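Hey,
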Amino acid sequence: MVDHGSPRISVLLPTHNRADVLAVAIRSVLWQSTADFELLIAGDGCTDATKDVIASFTDRRIRWFDLPKAPGVGYANRNVALRQARGHYIAYLAHDDLWFPDHLERLGARLDETGAELTYSRLLAVDLDGRIRPSSYNLEIPSHCAGLWRGDIAITISAVMHTRACLVKYGEWNETLLHHADVELWHRFLTSGRFRNVAFFSEPTALHFVANWRRTDRQAARRMTRWLVDGLLDETLPEALHLPVVEGEPQQQTAWRYLTGQPHEKVRLIRRAVVQFQDALLWKARTDPGFAGLRAGLFFGGLLDRLSRRITWMASRQTRDRHRRLQAMTRAFEEHASRESRAAVG
């Protein structure tokens, strides 16, 4: 029985002490081309001005959950808010990301037209220099799908929408994990559906920024890889994939001001530039002899990055335990799905 008083989409926005950029995230929800949604803001022990930021919005679709700090990233508080969700679909927005105006409309239509349980749009990651880097991660590619259990994933929560029924069929956010519960959740949803319940939306619908707690690591990585990739990016990255950078101002505020001038035109240019960038890379790989050297450099740069992560993994017992637990969980999902598949064939 359909509740005609319920919104079509419930948006979950989890937050912890990011009052400096939270207003941008909220505005990017409220400017959506579809108005049929509710916004659930789950506060995870906020001690800054988060409450005041939310109070400055008078939109009745906003529901504020001022909850005490939960362990880790606060997955338990996400579940508290989601249990109050009334929408048929669930969408997520990180407190330091922002959506294009048609995000909910486009992803909702994708689920409608395919009958899938989960969809996600192409990731656009904004680096610390304001460059928008498109991802080529696509779960329709077998090698991408196979790497999911290891945490090899390029899907941010801000690009995901799924049916609310998934939380009932496959379970809620895993409150026993301190980190990476998103990887575990997507894997649980998708392996349970034998990867036939996902629909990739190839156009980008959101901007993903470097989280505050990752900025130190990203700054170190930027110094390591700048000499490898900056030349390629300067040559092939279209102008529309360069966001302005204002010293002393959060990137999210600068990007919001840039987009709101002509939002539909700016989004159109960004999407067109993504295709141009990918085509430029493919063409360069085919025609430029120097590209082989760049590929070798990126390969060795990747090895250095993996070595660095391996050393960190070996040095931290907590990190080792977390990754082993995650892998044990996701491997169990894969084995269960494999057994079911063999039984169905038999």
